[in-house]
């Protein structure tokens, strides 16, 4: 008889998110992080990066719709959008529902993109759209060096550690501001205000 496997991501010392694991689909170590994709009984497929939950099949739509739809509905122009991060493809998928002429995604980790295409077709389907261009590279450097202007910039980053830490800095936000069109909008994943209030407030301060 196979033993039960459970996964828990702790939120501090007093709370956590726990899944009973049905199957481990893949475990890989990229240049930047460890990636695990597991199949659970209640939440379907779950992607983990360095042991932290990035998405679940059951409720990823909540995050991806909210990081895109309110901003898109507020735009005066929908010609060009930029996604920094978002290697699972969910943000790109949502933007393809609108009439953007060009959507560029800059993701630093090709292992995330390729395994999302292989195991997470419900989000990675966005990569099949002809308007989406995926660049494997450093989003910080792209924003710093590009001459392009965008109507919408979405910073769909992981938590502010390792390669993603610079995506929460004041200098990065200043560079993002430079590549926005006059009526452009920026949306950023800025941590959980309940469990990571210090990072949330720091991100807010750096944006000002």
TrEMBL record:
Family, per entry: Belongs to the spermidine/spermine synthase family.
Q: Which GO terms describe its biological process?
A: spermidine biosynthetic process
Q: Name one GO molecular function term.
A: spermidine synthase activity
HAMAP family associated with the record: Spermidine_synth
Xref: PANTHER family: SPERMIDINE SYNTHASE, SPERMIDINE/SPERMINE SYNTHASE
Q: What is this protein called?
A: Polyamine aminopropyltransferase
Q: Which InterPro entries match?
A: PABS, PABS_CS, SAM-dependent_MTases_sf, Spermi_synthase, Spermidine_synt_N, Spermidine_synt_N_sf
Q: Does the keyword Transferase apply?
A: yes
What does the record give as EC number? 2.5.1.16
Q: Which Pfam families match?
A: Spermine_synt_N, Spermine_synth
What keywords tag this UniProt record? Polyamine biosynthesis, Spermidine biosynthesis, Transferase
Q: Which branch of life, at top level? A: Bacteria
Q: Where is the active site?
A: 156
- The PABS domain sits at 4-208
């Amino acid at each position: 008889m196979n033993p039960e496997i459970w996964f828990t991501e702790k939120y501090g010392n007093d709370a956590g998110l726990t899944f009973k694991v049905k199957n481990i689909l893949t475990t890989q170590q990229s240049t930047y992080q460890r990636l695990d994709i597991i199949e659970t009984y209640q939440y379907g497929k779950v992607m983990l990066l360095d042991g932290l939950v990035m998405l679940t099949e059951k409720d990823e739509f909540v995050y991806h719709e909210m990081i895109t739809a309110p901003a898109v509905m507020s735009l005066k122009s929908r010609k060009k959008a930029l996604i920094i991060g978002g290697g699972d493809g969910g943000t790109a998928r949502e933007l393809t529902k609108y009439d953007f002429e060009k959507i560029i995604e800059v993701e630093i980790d090709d292992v995330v993109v390729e395994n999302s295409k292989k195991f997470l077709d419900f989000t990675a389907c966005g990569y099949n759209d002809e308007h989406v261009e995926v660049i494997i590279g450093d989003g910080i450097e792209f924003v710093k060096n590009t001459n392009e202007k965008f109507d919408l910039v979405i910073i769909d980053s992981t938590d502010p550690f390792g390669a993603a830490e610079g995506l929460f800095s004041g200098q990065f936000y200043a560079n993002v501001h430079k590549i926005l069109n006059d009526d452009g909008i920026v949306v950023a994943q800025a941590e959980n205000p309940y469990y990571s209030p210090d990072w949330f407030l720091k991100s807010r301060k750096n944006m000002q």
